[in-house]
């Protein structure tokens, strides 16, 4: 079902949950990217008078700010809810939290510790016949919002057709890498990942990325991954919840820092991406973060635009509204 913006969006049927970027499908991802490229004026009113629940079990800078501002741009009212306020699966089950929040909000967004919490939220709403979509703002499994922003950034830099491009990721093959690799493969982008032993993709991850149609090179040599690449990506070596592993990870990732020498091995017009926060001197040097190849702040800005596109899409808006097609 497609929305009429003049009357506000209608809930799609079936509900468009986005727990992983793969949930969008190839056409959905393309539509979200098109919506993300529109001005806020083109999408104004999509959430007019509607609430957007923002459940945060983990703190965030970019995710909270980008999601709140995206909801406001669409005419909605975001409500930030800290994890301790609801006690997910402690004070109240994930299913009951979802059913309760759906009484007040048109979209439920959550940044959770365990991906299964999101699955149970979406399943509970579907089982009850409640057409309120759930969006994953980050879980241990996936970060679809970041992946959409990453592709939006690449489209701005290289054009809408990205099938001839290659993205190299250096570091921990974590949730950010997984969503990036899946989204890139869905868009025809070749991907490479360089990780130390024990921190690379699992066989299931490799199979998943391959099932999306994209080529994937897995290596333990950062120079091999970066050679001739159009974009180089990295993330922190120690994510939230892994602080106890910090010393071991610093030792394991020695030699995987994205520095000027490594970047020099990429293509002449290669760009550098990082989902932030950046730990200068660990996974990336300050000279690269703030250097001429860095598009990190453009990428951070695009978190807001990507979120606007995602919110519009889950509410039933499809691409083409800018030309009058709905």
Essential attributes:
326 residues, alpha/beta, Rossmann fold, 5-stranded parallel sheet, 14 helices, globular, disordered N terminus
Describe the overall structure.
This protein has helices spanning 25-36, 40-43, 62-73, 83-86, 94-101, 115-127, 144-158, 175-186, 203-211, 222-226, 246-252, 260-263, 286-289, 296-314, and strands at 51-56, 77-82, 107-111, 134-138, 166-170, 190-194, 216-219, 231-234, 271-274. The chain has two domains: 5-142 and 304-314, Rossmann fold; 144-301, Aspartate/ornithine carbamoyltransferase (Rossmann fold). The protein is of the alpha/beta class. Mean pLDDT is 93; it is low at 1-12 and 322-326. It contains 14 helices and nine strands.
Write out the CATH superfamily name of the largest domain.
Aspartate/ornithine carbamoyltransferase
What is the rounded Rg? 19 Å
Share of helical residues: 25-40%
Q: Could you tell me the CATH topology label of the largest domain.
A: Rossmann fold
> Which structural class do the helices and strands define?
alpha/beta
Approximately what portion of the residues adopt beta-strand conformation? Answer: 5-15%
Which CATH top level class of the largest domain fits? Alpha Beta
Separation, N- and C-terminal Cα atoms: 9 Å
Please outline the major beta sheet: 5 strands, parallel
Instruction: Assign the CATH architecture of the largest domain.
Output: 3-Layer(aba) Sandwich
Unreliable stretches (pLDDT < 50, length at least 5) are: 1-12, 322-326
The total count of strands amounts to 9
The best one-word shape is globular
What is the element string, with H for helices and E for strands?
HHEHEHHEHEHEHEHEHEHHEHH
Mean pLDDT: 93
Number of helices: 14
Strand order of the largest sheet: 7-6-5-8-9
Number of domains: 2
